[in-house]
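Before surveying the methods themselves, it helps to consider a single example record, giving the amino acid sequence and backbone structure tokens:
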Amino acid sequence: MPLSSKARVYADVNLNRPREYWDYESYEVKWGDQDDYQIVRKLGRGKYSEVFEGLNITNNEKCVIKVLKPVKKKKIKREIKILENLRGVTNVICLEAVVKDPISRTPALIFEHVENRDFKELYHTLTDYDIRYYMFELLRALDACHSMGIMHRDVKPHNVMINHSQRKLRLIDWGLAEFYHPGQEYNVRVASRYFKGPELLVDYQMYDYSLDLWSLGCVFASMIFRKEPFFHGHDNYDQLVRIAKFLVQRNCFSI
């Protein structure tokens, strides 16, 4: 039987909220009109979605269209509910609408558009002040979502959009995000390997918001030391070994 653990901060946020705030399985999605949006070009793809630059033809403004691949309805509702709750939160990508193709029934999420430069190019150009500024902005985003009882669970450079010319940062991709409840056991198959906290690597399921802070630290280390990823394990076991070596060695550049 694993030891029980409870978050040191914001532990009871969802206990003090009405059930409809976190009960995404009972959530009724309010679908918008798909014809209000037009796909312009493909931006990329992930395990659960394809992403396009789009145009809102009602106001001629750019947007981002995330077309979801077939997954369980519960997972889709969880992402939408969390994004609805986080609408307007500091430095969190804003969900503008949710639409569904009337024939294929494929859902798509419509987001605000943010110009972004590839982090592999950007991080090498950042000054010490820039790094501290973006660290602070990302911390603001995470503290805001944690204070609302939500864990992101996939913090990594690919999910941090930075428009450097406007000094704008947005935390994106809330597909793995989850509501925190003390004592609940969660899936450990979250986050990308290089940014997984030690608890995930040892299959400890009773984790909390601190999971995001480990990932955040890995992102910051990548920025500061110009090393991406900072912990480069070949598998989960090797990832844990590299973390352990780093923590016991004085010379952090030896890994």
User: Anything to note?
Assistant: The chain has two domains: 23-112, 119-252. The first helix runs from residue 19 to 22. The chain has seven helices and nine strands.
